[in-house]
Design goal:
Length: 287
């Protein structure tokens, strides 16, 4: 895990410098004390590493996770100086094999060499993934939604989150992932007339996933997330906003959030999901 973290950090910081968008913080800051790399390690569908045969030094790795027919490439990194030499192709063939998964998706950087690999692997860019960043402010929901804190281990909570994700993302998380999210972040269900119509997760490690059955409920949900971020003492939060989610983007921009210069792309082998009502997990390793 630690060696892969170093490969990831050296690769993304190199790309950021080449793109004129240098990254802030350290590898440890980005990975929230080890919880995220531990999760993707324990839940990996495939995890392959490339080593220098003469030194046994790790020079690249690729990893994917799988949930109910959705195969997501979570990481694909080769250290600077060892790229474009066949290592990436070999890693991608093993961690993101053709024919596996009904839907195959990647939250991809704009690195042109990686883009070429992803197109060769049968995926295509669908839309940009924006990061909207800002300081949260105290807020109150203005509509008719009620918020209920999720309790870990509750069958009702798992059923509600899965039903909403089935209607929006099409590939819902399982109980183990939902329980992990609730250990990592606060979770809230949003109710109308006693029925769950949305959910959100927020904590010190980031925000998301967030989803609503109807896009027009997203502004109230996002106001509540902001308010909870203030209560948690967070001075800065970041939302992952798919390009088609105009309601969320306009709401957050109107609240003073800004679009970070680093923009990713959602790539997949076919169109899926209703991304006008979803804000994925952040940081953007998977949906």
């Amino acid at each position: 895990m630690r060696a892969c973290l170093e490969v990831m950090w050296s690769s993304v910081t190199d790309l950021a410098l080449r793109n004129g968008t240098p990254l802030e913080g350290t590898a440890e800051d980005w990975w929230a004390g080890g919880e995220l790399p531990r999760f993707v390690a324990e839940h990996a569908a495939e995890w392959w590493v490339a080593e220098d045969p003469s030194t046994a030094e790790l020079i690249g790795y690729a990893r994917s996770i799988e949930r109910e027919g959705l195969l997501e490439l979570t990481e694909f990194f080769v250290v600077p100086g060892r790229q474009s030499a066949g290592v990436g192709r070999a890693l991608l063939e093993r961690a993101f094999p053709p024919g596996r998964g009904d839907v195959r998706s990647i939250i991809a950087t704009t690195d042109v060499r990686a883009q070429a690999r992803y197109y060769a692997a049968g995926t295509a860019a669908r839309f940009p993934m924006l990061a909207l960043v800002g300081a949260p402010a105290a807020a109150s929901m203005a509509g008719d939604l009620g918020a209920r804190r999720m309790e870990p281990g509750s069958d009702d909570v798992v059923a509600a989150v899965r039903a909403i994700e089935l209607a929006t993302l099409e590939h819902p998380r399982g109980r183990s992932e939902i329980d992990w999210l609730l250990r990592l972040r606060e979770g809230h269900l949003y109710l109308r007339d006693g029925e769950a119509v949305g959910f959100a997760f927020v904590g010190k490690g980031g925000t998301g996933p967030i989803a609503a059955l109807e896009p027009l409920d997203l502004p109230d949900i996002l106001l509540h997330v902001e308010d909870r971020a203030v209560a948690l003492g967070l001075e800065r939060i970041e939302f992952q906003v798919p390009g088609p989610n105009a309601v969320a983007a306009r709401h957050l921009l109107g609240r003073g959030f800004r679009i970070d210069p680093w923009i990713n792309l959602l790539m997949s082998n076919r169109e899926f999901g209703r991304f006008d009502r979803v804000l994925p997990f952040g940081p953007p390793l998977f949906l």
